[in-house]
Structures are given as C-alpha cells and as structure tokens.
Amino acid sequence: MFLEQGIKPENDFWKYLLGSVFIIAASFIGQIPLSAAVLYKSFVENKPFPTTDEEVMKMFESNMTLFLVMISFVFAFVGIYFVVKYIHHQTILSITTSRTKVDWKRIWFSFFLWSLFSIVSFLFVYLKSPEHFVFNFNLIPFLILIVIASLLIPIQTSTEEYVFRGYLMQGFANLSYNRWFPLLMTSVIFGTMHIFNPEVAKMGKIIMVYYIGTGLFLGIITLMDEGMELALGFHAANNLVGALLVTSDWTVFQTHSIFIDRSEPSAGLDVILPVLIIYPILLFIFSRKYGWKNWKEKLSGNINKFENHVKFKS
C-alpha cells in the first residue's frame, strides 16, 4: 500500500519538517544563478534593480527566464533524493509507487490524455473567439523553448508531485490513522502554495478553488492507483502544453508560445468547470482503465500502521 510505505517507527513527523526545510533550502540554492543574473544586469549593465517578481520575470529574454527559474527545481529534486535516502532511509521508488517499479505506461497515458484534452479545449476556445488570441510563432525561439521546456518542466512538475503526493502524503500519514487527512492536508497546502501567482491577483481568490481542487484530484488518483504515476503524467502535460501552446501577460511565465491570449481574465466557468466536471470525467476514465474499486476505503479508510511488509533499502 502506497501510504504505508512511509510508515515506520522511526519516521517521526519532525523528520518531515526537517526534510521540508532541507528541500526548501536546496531550492533557494538553486535560485543563486537567477539572483546572480539579476545582479549582473543591475550593476554591470546598469539596468534598474527589480523590486517585484513580475519585474524579475521581465528582466530577461523569456527563454532565459524560464531556464533560470526552472534550475531551482533541479536542486530541489536533488534535495528530495537526499532527504528520502539519508533522513528517512527509504528509496525514491517507495515515495513514487507501491509497484515493484515505476509504471511508465501509466505516466504516458495520463500525459497524452491530458495533453489531448488541453489542445482540443484550446482549439474550441480559439475557434469561438479568435479575436482574443495573437499568433506568436517564431521558429528559432520556439525550438529553443521546446528544448528547455521539455527538459526542465517535467523536473519542475515532478518535484512538486514528489513533495506533495509522495513525501508529504506519506508524512501526514504518519500523523493520522485515516487516509482522508493526508489527502486533505496536501491538497490545501498545494493549493495555497499558488496564492502569490499573478493569476490570483488578476482573477481573485476564487481561483484557489481551482488550485486546491487540482491538488485534491491529484491526491485522489494517487491514493486510488496506489502510486503517483498518473499524477506525474497529468502535471507534466498541464504545464508543458501550457508553456508551448499559449501564454498571456498575466500568467506566471511568458514564453515564446504559439499563441498569446490577449483576453481579460475572469473567474468563471474556467475555474469551476475542471473541478466539477472535467476532473470527475478523468477519474471515471482512469477508474475504468485501471479497475479501481473500494473508493471509500482507499480515500477515507484507516491507515494500517502495524502490518507494513515493505522492505526498504538504505
């Protein structure tokens, strides 16, 4: 069982707090190249020193910005590996899946399913209101974007999944006897982590319904499937397709995407629709494909803390 793989007598919750601090510190170290680039621009090239995140994001060519920002997730991922191996004496596999090895077919199925849906839904919106979009395709910058995004965005999304659906999901399981607690806690923390995104300032706090709802969806598919392969594929597709297909002035990243969205954002159906309709449809598809059963037990049943037969390699 996936949650039970992290339940060990020596896995006190303070170790997860310590591990989280270590991962955050590793992420901060990964931000040194960005900070150094900002200082170089300011003091060597005499550019105005940025005082907001938005100004930092616009200080460099967008491909360079994406590269510098994503580097921090490489360091954070290394931090996760260190914490899991040396603080908790587990393997990366143990916080990835309950299977004997990572099921890449699950990752790719989820990736292509959500990529297809994202592209089709964009085409629907584009054909309905083409005046809201500007064709932005520029071959060389776009090819560079493909390389950077394909290499680093999966690392970024995987890092987030390993932190929330893997490491912290099992961490909160050590605190609780019921499976709903780690599911709820990781979903809320994942959602509130996005509270400083420009989208929140532009669309209002109602968009937190989408962020927390997405965290809940990713947590549900992780618990139902006894591993986070489906969550890894979904998250990578969501961010990668977004970076390549369409961007706007009010999103976290502005990239050399194929289209630019010039419409004024509003929190409406685009916030509620995924949580109430699209995600349940995806849950139905996954459940039929992978034969999920015992929903109540897997999502809100008791956590077995006394019969963990998983053997860890230190």
Task: Give a structural overview.
The protein is 65% helix and 3% strand. The protein is built from 12 helices and 3 strands; from the N terminus they run H-H-H-H-H-E-H-H-H-H-H-E-E-H-H. The longest helix has 35 residues. Strands 1-3-2 form a 3-stranded mixed beta sheet. The protein has one domain. The protein has 314 residues and is an all-alpha fold.
Which short descriptors sum up this protein?
12 helices, three-stranded mixed β-sheet, 314 residues, mainly alpha
Q: What's the structural blueprint in terms of helices and strands?
A:
Blueprint: H1 13-30, H2 32-43, H3 53-57, H4 62-87, H5 104-128, E1 133-135, H6 139-173, H7 180-192, H8 198-203, H9 208-225, H10 229-245, E2 246-248, E3 259-261, H11 269-290, H12 295-300
Number of helices: 12
Q: Characterize the overall form.
A: globular
Strand order of the largest sheet: 1-3-2
Query: N-to-C terminal Cα separation, in Å?
Result: 19 Å
Helix and strand string, N-terminal first?
HHHHHEHHHHHEEHH
**Total domain units:** 1
Average pLDDT metric: 92
Number of E strands: 3
Biggest beta-sheet profile: 3 strands, mixed
Radius of gyration: 20 Å
Which band does the percent of strand residues land in? Answer: under 5%
Oligomer: single chain
Helix content: 55-70%
Contiguous uncertain segments of 5+ residues: 309-314
SS-based structural class?
mainly alpha
